[in-house]
Amino acid sequence: MLPTGQESRNAHRRRTRLRPVKLVTASGRFIQDGTALDGSANGARILRYEAIPLPARIAVFDESDRTLRAASIVWTQAMEMGVRFAGPARAASPAEIARLTGRYYALPD
Questions:
Q1: Residue 92: what are its φ and ψ, rounded to 5°?
Q2: Which of 6, 38, 48, 60 has the maximum number of C-beta atoms within 10 A of its C-beta?
Q3: Superkingdom of this entry's organism (predicted)?
Q4: Short-list 93, 86, 88, CA closest to 58
């Protein structure tokens, strides 16, 4: 992770319309809900709702366009975090969508 305040962004950041996201493990298990505050082609700034420990590598599920994107956590500061995407977004499968948006998505399996 980068020291607080150090800039390493390679792509222009753009504000989003507070897109709802879910942070999931690399294997697709739900960790927590969040909101994408802004983003670029290479990463995003996300507001988390709980200050819980996170793995260094996660996936970000964009609830608006129903895509998953592998990411690495670059920095955290209070309830915000920055992630660097590890590749392009991919459409979530119907099973992944059901698991992440169904009635009891936040309960462990």
A1: -70, 145
A2: 60
A3: Bacteria
A4: 86
Are 25 and 58 in contact by the 8 Å Cβ rule? The answer is yes
Determine whether 54 is exposed, middle or buried from the number of CB atoms within 10 Å of its CB (0-12, 13-18, 19+): middle
CA neighbor of 36 nearest in space, from 104, 108, 85: 85
pLDDT digits (tens, 9 = 90+) for 22-47: 999 999 999 999 999 999 999 999 99
pLDDT digits (tens, 9 = 90+) for 53-72: 999 999 999 999 999 999 99
CA-nearest of 65, 95, 56 to 23 is: 56
Domain coordinates of the chain in residue numbers? Answer: 16-97
